Amino acid sequence: MTDLTHVRGEHHPIALRLVASGLPAMPLRDGKKTFGNCRNCRNNVCGGRPNMKTPGTCTCPAPCHGWAAATTDLDVLNSQSWAWAWWEAAAVAYHPGGAGLTVVDLDNADATAWARAELPATLTVFTTRGEHWIYRGAMPSANAVRPGVDIKSLMSYARWLGPGTGTGTMTALPDAVRALVVREPAPVRPVPATMPSRAAGDRCPHRTPAFLERGIAMAEQRIAAASSAVHATVFATFLAVLSTHGRCGCLTEAHTERLFAAAQAKGESPRHCADAWANALTRLGL
Known about the structure:
By secondary structure, the chain is α+β, with helices and mostly antiparallel strands.
């Protein structure tokens, strides 16, 4: 292996060793922080979302998009585009989920004592404040699953603390760890299937079903086009639909299901959809 320490700093060779063992690696600045996106991807204009399931479809010439920058591609790690980052790096991180691993990050003595009492033993790496318990198997990541305990696996990164800082043998990810990120579903307030019906003899102001269909389709498109402030866009769209179509009795459960589906496709939960709908009804006095 060619020694590039003199041009890429002391952390680059560590990353190469991690990659050789199958761990996707990346540089960190200031100890634990990722490098910012490159100029082409600043403010995620390329579509990258490091906290969601896809990091974007761009090919970045620098370590972009947080955890998604971790790679096993030696051509990328050794590239000139990454040389400055390695030279400025303060540490090395790896993507546990990318290697089929899960790290239980124990931040203090109380968290460590809980793990020793409740979790099966595994490879344990000592940190400055606690311990990393590393299991074989991947799962969703989550912070603060209990006091002082974070789960780092898929869509997350963990700092590499070096050889000789741990003990034990890695074991399979237990159900007790998987259960830490399971949440009871939040109760969802019921949503009326239909809006108030028209009085006998009243004429629908829409005149034709096409007007309502066009309104629902436009609302779906507005939600789908939201690139930021999704919560606000969903509420404003629900409010607009109800203010136009909510008093004549034409709006049905099928229409609300379409609107909820559009919102959930943008990451909104059923609870958020129900709350936004109920708040819009309240705002309009319906």
